[in-house]
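Protein data:
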Amino acid sequence: MTVTESYFAISRHVAVPRERLFEAWIREDIPFSEIDPPRRLVFELEDGGLAIVTLSDEGDETVMTFEGSGDAEQEWAARLDALIDVAQGSQSGGNAGGIRPG
């Protein structure tokens, strides 16, 4: 029997500095297995898969790409949007809409 795992990637172009998005991720209560400030974060999802967040500059925007596995793409899309809202509207921190590994 062959098991095929689902893979998805979500990208957002955000008018927020890369460092601020990176800090919004770091404030989360997620144990990261790899941290490369302010470019890349890797962490394990609850289902045992890996998630990779990559931040890159593109003109005046930051491109945030989330790569994950499983069937939680819609859930992660909403979580990313909540994190962006926090990064755009606040520098005081918070829980970025409850982002947790799915």
In short: The chain has two helices and five strands.
